[in-house]
Amino acid sequence: MRMASLWIHGGRPLRGRVRAAGRKNSAVAVLPATLLSDEPTRIDNLPDIADVVTMIDLIRAVGASVDVVGPGSVVVTPGSLHPNAAPRELAQRMRASYYLLSILLARCGEADVPFPGGCAIGSRPIDQHLKGFRALGAEVDVVGGAVRARAVALHGAHVYLDVTSVGATINLMLLASQAEGTTVIENAAKEPHVVDVATLLLAMGASIVGAGTDIIKVRGRERLHGCQHAIIPDEIEAATFMIAAAGTTGEVIVENVIPRHLEAVSAKLVEAGCQVDEDGEAVRVTARDRPLPVRLKTQPYPGFPTDAQQPMTSMLTIANGTSTVTENVWEDRFRFTEELRRMGAVIEVDGRTATVRGVPRLSGTCVQASDLRAGAALVVAGLIAEGVSEVQGIEHLDRGYEQIAGKLQALGARIDRRVEPFEVAAGADAE
Asked: Who contacts 140 (Cβ-Cβ below 8 Å, separation ≥6)?
């Protein structure tokens, strides 16, 4: 059976308004976090993406009920949880399935969860998660492709993360919120979705200080209660639209954003010659010429986000000069550049650094997405390129982008989701 793909007739400036959905990385942590209470919790502004569907299926599988009460809104009722009921097939669809470890360990005293999946972007160990669990009193083993954890009693501890890990920071906040005493997480991640999860936990009655800094203190509570919480906007989706506007010499207003979360991306777009204006909960990107070359290095928040690196690299393929892109977070995030070369890009990769020599134009062809953000990068390239491009592997895109074809169509792009062979000659413009 042939999978769906995106067909893009490129070379058209994007113009108009688009609304960013709720943040993917918040949603897949907030949903399991609701299970720390034994009361219903309402979550709003959920993005309509595959990873949210998978997480809902996972928390249902371990015993919770999830009722859809409106567009982007659900009520989660924890019920009686089962510590070893997470299906392997579901857990391996996404990285965030590891949040069930802390939830089930806290609620049931034990957890048996298959190893997580997610994008193939390099080594992604969970050793910092397990180190933290052990520090809080759990016995942890890895057996047969699953993590098994047991704890008679959880207690506060001082945990120094050897690497700044978003997932480990969130998992330890979740577990510590139910441990006796105070837990200090040092070298904690500062990303906005760490703060979003902390905001939910505070609304549930947890005691957390320092979320958004590199030291987080959590005082355990015996019981948390239900609440209502709205997911923050997805700045990576917003950044993708901003970069696409810049690459197509367009003018786009992205609504429902927190501009502060986009400062690193906005700064690089200004450096590339774009005009970026903030207006409350919206940003406007205006580009009137080919981008200027930039030097870009990804860093943990508040630095330039690794998830926006791939789309930005696509934009730089047509810059008026040579750019360098250094990937400091994931070591295998330049695989997609081979697909860009097939479109006419001139890119040399040496370890964690890509040298991008701008060309006047890209040419449409058939390309394959290898992961979520690579898919976004190839869509940006297709929008920039002359002629027709087919982006295959869009099941990766579906994991993190809400109705991307429809949103781009509203901005004037000629893009369709199809299930058919790619038979158009590169550069041709045919329906």
From this structure: 130, 133, 134, 147, 148, 149
